[in-house]
Design goal:
By secondary structure, this protein is α/β, with parallel strands linked by helices. It folds into two domains: 203 residues, Rossmann fold (3-Layer(aba) Sandwich); 105 residues, Rossmann fold (3-Layer(aba) Sandwich), CATH 3.40.50. Helices cover 36% and strands 18% of the residues. It is built from nine helices and 14 strands.
Length: 378
């Protein structure tokens, strides 16, 4: 019996010991589980805080969409025969999710047209919209999607009429969104990167295209098909975008944006200026007709702004402002080049940009001397 009692006692003691070990294991497991849960909760909180901080740190960029090839749709893979101005701003942004890592975006559909249908009224809407939205301290910059045909004109107009140092960047595409290897998505991404950068502040209106940054005054379209269709002649580009990093190397020496004297806030349209292209046997009757139906003229002359004796005779008799530019891509027109004393040299402005500056100038009373100074300053 004693042996049986001892055996039973040992068994009971062993059972108690096993129960204690089991209890300790359960406590340990519970402790470890709680520790892991707290760690995970901490990590989630840190991630949420980091995400919140990152979101708060991202600049807000307003994307103003106007249509163009970048919003064009055609036969899958084809680069021609498409309909421009089909996709909305939201659709364009949806196709470039990487933009969300750069900035918080507000999309505004200003219009959705081929850029050949851009009007002075659309220009005024764009400029007034930017000027109003720029007052919001939460807005850091603007991107405008635009067709390339008249992008240089819209860019220069805005360069003279927006009243903010905040970046205003235009971009577009040479291939529609449905083309094989469409160039629009990268151009849009890089434009947002520039608009969100501190480097672009105070630089005036910029154009971003195919990794390069251009100033509004000198940028021009130079090809009907190439994805490198945007250039700036002798002036060249002023910066580069690589993997979202903005490198700016030059600054505009001409008046723009906040230094501009033009106030378009009360305007509903602009004075009419006609551009006339001189060529061999160009009919001088065209000058007479245009002068009767315009507030001013710009002549795209041959060489250094030259034209025939017949044109000289008609221009000498005109009483409206006449600005002389050149059909040549590069070069300068000075007073010494003028064939008619009553005309104004366009300096280095292309005919289409000279027309914009003249249209804005004619919103008030002007003299020939004032216009000459204007074309030197802008």
């Amino acid at each position: 019996m004693p042996d049986k009692s001892r055996t039973a006692a040992r068994a009971a003691a062993g059972l108690d010991e096993n129960m204690e070990v089991l209890h300790m294991k359960r406590v340990l497991i519970l402790f470890l589980s709680l520790a892991m849960l707290l760690s995970a909760a901490g990590s989630l909180a840190e991630d949420a805080a980091a995400e919140s901080a990152g979101s708060a740190a991202k600049p807000k960029i307003v994307v103003l969409a106007t249509g163009g090839t970048i919003a064009g749709v055609g036969d899958p893979g084809k680069v021609a025969g498409y309909k421009p101005g089909t996709l909305t701003a939201e659709m364009l942004l949806w196709g470039v999710p990487e933009i969300d890592e750069v900035a918080d975006i507000e999309a505004v559909q200003v219009c959705n047209v081929n850029s050949d249908d851009i009007t002075a009224e659309i220009w005024l809407t764009l400029a007034n919209t930017i000027n109003e939205m720029a007052k919001d301290p939460d807005v850091s910059g603007f991107v405008i999607t635009h067709g390339t045909d008249t992008m240089e004109e819209t860019a220069y107009f805005l360069n003279l009429t927006v009243r903010t140092d905040k970046p205003v960047v235009l971009t577009g595409a040479m291939r529609p969104a449905t083309a094989l290897s469409a160039d629009g998505p990268l151009n849009l991404y890089e434009a947002v990167c520039v608009a969100a950068s501190k480097e672009a502040v105070g630089q005036g209106v910029l154009i971003v295209f195919s990794d390069r940054i251009y100033a509004a005054r000198t940028m021009a379209k130079t090809s009907t098909y190439s994805v490198m269709a945007i250039a700036a002649g002798e002036a060249g580009d002023i910066g580069i975008v690589r993997d979202g990093v903005v490198y700016l190397y030059e600054h505009s020496g001409r008046k723009h944006t906040t230094a501009s004297e033009f106030d378009i806030s009360g305007l509903e349209t602009l004075p009419k200026v006609s551009v006339l292209f001189f060529s061999v046997d160009a009919d001088p009757e065209l000058l007479k007709y245009a002068a009767e139906h315009s507030d001013g003229l710009v002549i795209a002359g041959a060489g250094a702004g030259e034209f025939s004796e017949k044109w000289i005779e008609v221009i000498n008799g005109l009483t409206i402002p006449v600005v002389i530019s050149s059909r040549i891509d590069d070069g300068i027109i000075t007073r010494e080049n003028l064939l008619c004393e009553n005309t104004i040299p366009a300096n280095t402005l292309s005919p289409q940009k000279a027309a914009i500056l003249l249209r804005l100038a004619l919103t008030k009373e002007v003299t020939r001397e004032y216009l000459e100074e204007l074309f030197l300053q802008y």
